[in-house]
Design goal:
The complex is a heterodimer of chains A (198) and B (173). Chain A is built from 10 helices and no strands. Chain A has 198 residues and is mainly alpha-helical. In chain A, helix 1 packs across helix 2 and helix 4 packs parallel to helix 9. The longest helix of chain A has 23 residues. The radius of gyration of chain A is 18 Å and the shape is globular. Chain B is elongated and about 115 Å long. Chain B has 3 domains: 46 residues, no CATH class; 56 residues, no CATH class; 54 residues, no CATH class. The chains are: A mainly alpha (198), B mainly alpha (173).
């Protein structure tokens, strides 16, 4: 199965942009925002769920990135660092809202996953059809935030377990178990949609 | 190798297994239809999760961020000025200021004391190149006349009286 590789196997394009920003180019930062805005926005939605403030938060994230980009030491990839900044902004927002931070620190996993699996629609024919994609998207959205975030970072961003653990500030073992649970729950949804086993 | 659990399959798919274990899994998959089927399902899950593009932000998002940054910059500049004033009260600056103040106080006390000390007595040196009325003790006090009861010939502190001086004082030279 083929899916888009974000970096096309080459050096990440943001490296050159960051270099120009470090040399004082303000327009380079606008390019960086353009490159990452949808991804950061999606990650916020993964963490917080569909949220009308997601875009405001994404702006806040970029302002934080702008303020601290000069201290970015390139020990990790820019995306890992940017997602960690995003996680912190989401954390602060959740705290400000007075919600428990169970999202990042544990919580009831299997119960929510069962709920997600229960949202299985009728059978489809293939992964490529519009209906199937909508079903899968709905199933992903029905997952608890902790699983959505891990799934997004692993499947979309192709981050390793180690990188995800740094982004979400959780142990690698927790990343592994959350990813397995999320994939197993989604597999339970996808199987009937795709029909009988080959 | 025994059949793989979901965790092993996901690790294999995400390339999180060391090469030796990957080879084992590959060998197992080549002869186990059940694990192959599981792997295919997981591949589909991963592809499905990756197939949905990220939720797009509205147009003008980037311009909005850049505008906010521009608005923030003057505020940030005044903040930094405030911080530098506040820095004077940080422990490092406070200690330096205290040390400086102490030095000033010590210097002031020292200078004041030095200024108030009685001057050491100045000894008048009498040198003689001949008889002179001012050279008391050389000829004896009886030689020196008193003017209005005051010894006018009393040598000024630090002054070296010689006969020539005395003569000059007398108006001879």
């Amino acid at each position: 199965m083929q899916y888009q590789d974000r970096n096309n196997g080459s050096l990440a394009p943001e490296n050159a942009i960051i270099g120009r920003f470090m040399n004082g180019s303000e327009s380079a930062f606008a390019e960086l925002v353009d490159l990452y805005k949808d991804r950061i926005h999606q990650f916020i939605i993964c963490v917080l769920g569909p949220d009308r403030e997601a875009e405001d938060l994404a702006q806040e994230v970029f302002i934080q990135i702008y303020r601290s980009l000069r201290t970015f030491k390139r020990e990790s990839s820019f995306s890992t660092w940017a997602y960690a900044v995003t996680r912190n902004v989401c954390r602060h927002r959740l705290r400000a809202r007075g919600r428990e931070m169970r999202l990042f620190s544990g919580g009831e996993e299997s119960g929510d996953l069962l709920k997600a699996a229960a949202a299985v629609p009728g059978p489809g024919s293939s992964l490529e059809t519009k209906e199937t994609k909508a079903v899968i998207r709905a199933a992903v959205e029905a997952l608890p935030p902790i699983h959505r975030a891990v799934l997004f970072l692993n499947c979309w961003e192709r981050l390793s377990y180690e990188e995800i653990s740094r982004v979400l500030d959780i142990p690698v073992g927790t990343v592994r178990s959350r990813l397995h649970n999320a994939m197993a729950a989604l597999a339970g949804i996808i199987k009937p949609v795709l029909g009988p086993e080959k | 190798m025994r059949c793989m659990d979901d965790g092993n399959i996901a690790d294999y798919l995400c390339e999180e297994l060391p090469e030796a274990e990957r080879a084992e899994v590959r060998a197992h998959l080549s002869c186990c239809a059940r694990c192959r089927s599981k792997l295919e399902t997981f591949e589909q899950v991963r592809a499905a999760a990756a197939s949905a593009p990220p939720a797009r932000v509205s147009d003008g998002f980037t311009a909005g961020v850049m505008l906010k940054l521009k608005e923030e910059q003057p505020a940030a500049a005044s903040d930094s000025a405030r911080v530098s004033f506040r820095a004077l009260f940080t422990p490092a600056y406070g200690l330096t200021l205290a040390a400086l103040a102490l030095c000033l106080i010590i210097s002031a006390v020292f200078l004041k004391r030095k200024a108030g000390l009685p001057r050491p007595a100045v000894q008048t040196i009498f040198l003689s190149d001949g008889p002179a009325a001012a050279n008391r003790g050389f000829y004896g006090t009886a030689d020196i006349p008193l003017e209005n009861g005051v010894d006018s010939s009393a040598a000024e502190p630090g002054r070296v009286n010689t006969d020539a001086c005395r003569t000059a004082d007398c108006g001879i030279l």
